Amino acid sequence: xxxxxxxxxxAVVRFAGDSGDGMQLTGSQFTTSTALSGSDxxxxxDFPAEIRAPxxxxxxxxxxxxxxxxxxxxxxxDRPDVLVAMNPAALKVNLMNLRPGGLLVVDTGTFxxxxxxxxxxxxxxxxxxxxxxxxxxxxxxxxxxxxxxxDMGLGNKEALRCKNMWTLGLMLWMFxxxxxxxxxxxxxxxAKLPDVAAxxxxxxxxxxxxxxxxxxxxxxxxxxxxxxxxxxxxxxTVTGSQALSWGIAAAGELAGLDIVxxxxxxxxxxxxxxxxxxxxxxxxVTFQAEDEIAxxxxxxxxxxxxxxxxxxxxxxxxxxxxxALGLAISTELxxxxxxxxxxxxxxxxxTKTEQSDLYQAVYGxxxxxxxxxxxxxxxxxxxxxxxxxxxxAVKYMxxxxxxxxxxxxxxxEPWKLPDLDALEPFKVEFAKAPEGExxxxxxxxxxxxxxxxxxxxxxxxxxxxxxxxEKDYKSGHISYDPENHQKMTDLRHAKVEGIANDIxxxxxxxxxxxxxxxxxxxxxTYGPISEAVKAARADGLNVSHIHIRYISPFPRNLExxxxxxxxxxxxxxxxxxxxxxxxxxxxIDAKPFxxxxxxxxxxxxxxxxxxxxxxx
Amino acid sequence: xxxxxxxKEKLTIKDFTSDQEVRWCPGCGDYxxxxxxxxxxxEMGVTRENTVFVSGIGCSSRFPYYMNTYGFHTIHGRAxxxxxxxxxxxxxLDVWVVTGDGDGLSIGGNHLLHALRRDVDLNIxxxxxxxxxxxxxxxxxxxxxxxxxxSTPTGSVDPSLNPISFALGSGARFIARTVDTAQKHMxxxxxxxxxxxxxxxxxxxxxxxxxxxxxxxxxxxxKAAPERQLLVEHGEKMIxxxxxxxxxxxxxxxxxxxVVVIGENGFTEDDILTHDETNRRMAQMLGELGANPGEPVxxxxxxxxxxxxxxxxxxxxxxxxxxxxxxxxxxxxxGQTWEVK
Lengths: 616, 341
Prior knowledge:
heterodimer, A: alpha/beta, Pyruvate-ferredoxin Oxidoreductase, domain 3, Rossmann fold, 3 domains, seven-stranded mixed sheet, six-stranded mixed sheet, 22 helices, 20% strand, B: alpha/beta, eight-stranded mixed sheet, three-stranded antiparallel sheet, 12 strands
């Protein structure tokens, strides 16, 4: 029976279930199918820190949200239009965010006394007034999944594991998405377990068929979401970790250097270690060190040896790397340090996102120890930002901190694959032996960049000794001379400050270059700020959006630009860090707007803050 | 061995001596070790450009400044980690790590453990003076119990750590011990350490003249040495003593090594153990020898069992085996993509 198909501009779907229900897989497969259909999209995997939290508990709920549409999608969506709840705990945690009038799909098969109790329900919410504001589809998905796979020879437990595919099948039907990409993925994933592959495909088909044949269509609509008009090219769905790893590899080729990654497992940075570890065909060397300190030290050792050392971690690990960062600053060796930020302090919220390591990046070392800090804004943007971090590191002989976050690391978006041949190379030339009897100094500098040259062990005539002790400006030998230390400290600052002349001027993302209010952001808040400013401007408000990639040093026009607005509002997922740096640098009245709940900003929240600031 | 590692002309001690003024205290044991290294490297036939000294922090860690080779004076305890990264960038380099009992066994204990476990092809020299020198005399992990120091005015209580046992426990495959003043013994140990493919660990008993003078004198003084040092050689009987009449025997009842006098109590030379440097259990017992009265301290190569391939060969081999099979572009375009026209 053909059902009505309603055309939507965009929709937000949230899959929520127990940690063991396979919600991340369901979400990522829905994403693939959606991307292949040509919609723009943004995803938000939202999972607990526990690997297998006790079954049925609220803290064990894992969710995956996707916002997709026939227009440019910049955020994961403020509130889901559709919530799929695989158990009472998932319902309990997520229902409050479902848009009133939204569609709720629940697996009634899991709503037994025990699960309700674990989720903290005194009474079964199904059929209660709590559901009145939503369209509800109550299905015993567990039972229907068992039915669908009963001839596949799986045990009850294995059979029940297929219920995420049943649900996915139903959702693919509802949004008119294709099953083929999922089927081919399942067949590949379970190539060695044909029974399991067949059962999952059967469950997927059964869910889809249920939508097709059941009476659902009498009450519920199917949706069609069109394709977005993107620039011509080849597209792929990428996560931030993937794009960042590719960027590092691309930079190695552009610089003509081998890449050596030293890393230690930490959430949410590990996917970068994993991705680079699979890139042996591209010549990437990875080293899982004994700890965070060894990870950066190995990277520094590799750079000393003439490769480009890279280390990747999250806030707590970056804290441990602090002393070694000072060594790289003092010896002027290039190292790229990637921080996938998470909620802090201490262990904090390992799987939740925050951008609260800006102070740590800019200020967090002993001594006067400046280094360049740059931030990426979205999964696809990680590619370009990683290349830029590597370029600055080798050109200026300095460690560079690249800030990303847990949201960017795990989120996916369609990305136009870049033309690698069109990227600007920055080939590194190592130091050469001096002519004649002249003594070799490792601290001969480029007058323009102030970067020292880079000698490579194994080369005759450039033997030298360096270390973390203050060194003579010229010879590089140990020096405790007071004037020399002043000079070297000034030089290290001047070198980093000089990078402002080598980076693009700050642009205005939306709006006029002067005006009443500038909303200034950095990092993964790009999407919600952009949408909020767009909505505010559509309402006729005088507001512009400035998004900063270069945090230290700032672009050289930033001060003039910011002083062209009456007010500055800085939304951040921290307690106000960029705000402080802006105030310090420019003595401007930058106002903070902060959120540290571990969840990304909602568009509405920023829009409300804009209205409050403009008193409208 | 690559082309670089053989010098075009014969080098001398002068070639390996940097122009930097040595700043250790007069009479420090480090001078003797430095001289021995500068003297022995030309004998090994290595080049300056292919040699790198990496150190941490402490008196011993100033070593690289005085070698006219590549050198990296890093941060406290981290030299093994930095050296590991260096070897991953260029496995052909000859990398020496210079560390001390505080640097290597306290703040850097974790890195030393893992460099030894991984068997990274490094030559690790641990100068053991049983004290913190550069920070002015606090007790170290190898200090004897009861050591009075600024931080332990009433005597230290921590049991001391045996570096040889630590190295063996970490999985080291080359372990040796020598003494700063043993100018005849040390070169051979350095050469063996250098020639060994894998992590070579050398404990050097070193005297700190200012903060722990004579800490080893009961073992190293000329008069005491023959009775307190057992110089082991692979395939040779473990005989020592001024009279060369003492030997090491394995006592089955106590399951340990014991000192016997040849010709007394019915013991003959046949009862004396022959050193087998590939025997890990023997190395364990030799490393601990000297803890009891009357026992000598074992010197020389206590253990050497080279692995089939080095760590860097294994790590880089995985990359080399497939490198270039696909490009970055291939990788980026693999999987599910779509065209927008």
